[in-house]
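Reopening this ticket.

The earlier resolution said the output was attached, but the attachment link was broken on my side. Pasting everything inline this time so it's all in one place.
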Amino acid sequence: MIRTFVAVDLPHSLHVQLGQLSSRLQRTGAAVSWVKPDRIHLTLKFLGNIPPEKIDAIRTALQSVASATAAFRLRPSGCGAFPTMKQIRVVWVGLEGDLDALRFLQERVEAAIAPLGFDPENRPFKPHLTLGRVKGKKNLHALQEALLEEQGFQLEAFDVMEVVLYKSDLRPEGARYTPLFRAQFSPR
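Inline output:
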């Protein structure tokens, strides 16, 4: 079985800038498992453990979605926490830009892979980039204050031009993500 998910990749320059934000937040000393900057991505659909023989069918489904999708722009903007700032479990950076196109893409990915046995997500899609997951209560107040200070945070816009099927290997030092294939969008 292969643990997989469908995501949008970020340009290297954004990984660097998100790493700088993450470093500022880490100074709070909060008990958070921080995502390594080069592993930050925008998840569209977590597939879980799949048999290797399903990969070709997923590739076909995602290529079908991608061929009917035009590139669009997003911008990382603001940061916050799930479920709330008072009960932080996940630290995230938000997105602005063509969110309608992003939601439509996510819905089409869900619809394309549903016939392959993947249940639709029960929760509403909340586009975000995960920076870290809280592991304890230490210094959470300092983290809350730092997140409030960074709410005006904004980075350069980037073009979304493909979706990627990733393999996720869970390791003691953190997850390792390997692209299995990329489905390019149609030219504008």
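Reporter confirms the inline version is readable. The chain has four helices and nine strands. The first strand starts at residue 2 and ends at 8.
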